[in-house]
């Protein structure tokens, strides 16, 4: 069984619209620091859910 986190952000995601904090500025300049809405993919041993 495999659990993959697809997103780990809150409902506002990252970067937050119109926010000037350091974390949001970093997420805007480097997409690797951006966070999508919280979601996950769970796969069974045969590759299906
Ligand atoms: Zn922010």
Mean pLDDT: 89
- List of distinct ligands in this structure: zinc ion
SSE order in H/E notation?
Answer: EHE
Contiguous uncertain segments of 5+ residues = none
Give the SSE map:
Elements (H helix, E strand, L loop, with lengths): L1 E6 L14 H8 L9 E5 L6
Antiparallel strand pairs: 1-2
The protein binds zinc ion.
The site of zinc ion has 5 residues, from helix 1.
GO molecular function, one term: lyase activity
Organism: Advenella kashmirensis (strain DSM 17095 / LMG 22695 / WT001)
Keywords: Lyase
Summarize the structure.
With 49 residues, this protein is of the alpha+beta class. 16% of the residues lie in helices and 22% in strands. It has one domain.
Structural key phrases:
two-stranded antiparallel sheet; binds zinc ion; 1 helix; about 20% strand; elongated; about 50 residues; alpha+beta
Structure characterization notes:
The protein has 49 residues and is α+β, with helices and mostly antiparallel strands. Helices cover 16% and strands 22% of the residues. The chain contains 1 helix and 2 strands; from the N terminus they run E-H-E. It has one helix at 22-29, and strands at 2-7, 39-43. A two-stranded antiparallel ribbon has the order 1-2. The longest helix has 8 residues, at 22-29. The N and C termini lie close together (9 Å). The mean pLDDT is 89. It binds zinc ion (ZN). Zinc ion binds at residues 16, 19, 21, 23-24. One of its GO terms (molecular function) is lyase activity.
């Amino acid at each position: 069984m495999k659990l993959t986190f697809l997103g780990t952000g809150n409902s506002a995601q990252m970067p937050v619209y119109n926010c000037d904090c350091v974390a949001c500025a970093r997420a805007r300049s480097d997409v690797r620091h951006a966070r999508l809405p919280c979601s996950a993919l769970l796969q069974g041993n045969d590759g299906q859910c």
